[in-house]
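---------- Forwarded message ----------

FYI, see the Glycosyltransferase family 2 protein record below. Original note from H. follows.
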Amino acid sequence: MLHLMWITAIINNLRLLFRLRRYKHHKIELDKIENRDKKIKHLVGITFYKEPLELLFDTLDSLANQPNAREKISVFGGMEAGTPDKEELEKTLKAKYTSQFERFYITVHPKGLPGDIPGKCSNLNYAARMAVKYLKEDRAYNFKSVEVLVTTGDVDNIFGDRYFDALEEDYWKLSPDQRYNTVWQSPLFYCMNIDKSPFFVRNIGLLRAFFMMGYLIPWNINTMSVFSLTLKLYQDGEFTHPGYQMEDIIALIRWMCVTGKRCIIRPIPVATLSGPTSGSNYFQEFYEWARQIRRWTIGAAEVFHYFAIKSKVLPFYVTITWALRFISYYGVILCMASTYSIIAPFVTTALLKAVGQVPVKGLVVPNEATFNWILLGFLGLQYLWFFFVCLINRLAEPIFPKKIKDETGIIRKIFHFLMMWPTMTAYCCVEVAAFLEVTIRGKAVCSHSASKKDGLVVKKGGQSVHPTSDLNPDRFDV
């Protein structure tokens, strides 16, 4: 069964990869689309705290380089009240980007708001509400005469070159009801500086991209980091929940509860880049890697608890199908599959002996030794699936924005490939420990600790780009 799930993911990946590569040469002609009753504009939200300023510049530059950004894209940046030198940071960002977008806002999320926990969810909830308020009060924006699409992203995302044009093109293909029940997701590739990462960071980065295209999008499980939807659905879903840490995983559930029906995740055929976990040295890399797996797992468990409470408002078939897919991915693939695949070949024969069903004779399996070799063959088959993980990420490189490539050397690639299984097994162990922790401690462990991003900053002249504590724009080569 586990191998069938891997085969399914490979098929889903190849289908979406083919679409991504073909779309790279597709000409988008929005002016020729008929029955466009309203003009589309975009509201994009990026939240940040203590991340390197260069990362934020790269993300905002990828938005500013979108076609017609000055005419149709408004951006709001959500800062936390505890952001170092926030006044100077706001001044720097406004000076650089106000003229590059239709509107550019900076909000500061105050501490201690009722129901808030620290993290992206509460920051984005506050920033998005304030940005919508500003637009509604801005008479020059003509809010009621346009259709606004909301897009969220992280501080370490590089948007694909035609993200918003591709989004609009797909938007007009749907009926009004379908648009309201649709969330658009861009496939994420965690490849920023990945060739400089340790094997466990690089391997999980490759696997996360594979799992997104293989399970999260086609199985309609949840959105991740960069996604878009109509402002109406965003408002009806009351923006994001400030009391939860995983605003992307919980989002689809909130919107399904609002609509009372299944919401669809449609892929935007444009690749977006993201950064893996990072640290300043090998020990910190491992610490950040394990810490983020723990956070993702606890967040997923917290979201499933939210779903169990809210599911009574959904149709029964929607509840059952979504729950089975969620459990299959987070509970089986991520938490159990690797350790089970290792243990199963060695315990299956022992269990059969214990119940008196030793497979010594048979037409297909002539003896016990053959049976054991078959089991070990299934164990080795896992590396065939890992080969496809690496291959699909490699074949996706021509569609990456900024022409980023994974320049890992061949010797390191071989070593990383051999360490795929130990990496996935360690991932499973961290997940099991996190599930046990959240089971025992409950809501007390559900807090958002921001990922460190210093290791993602591109090296220039052999030196790291300065972090946000140095906000002099003249110090940056941008």
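H. also flagged this: The first strand starts at residue 39 and ends at 48.
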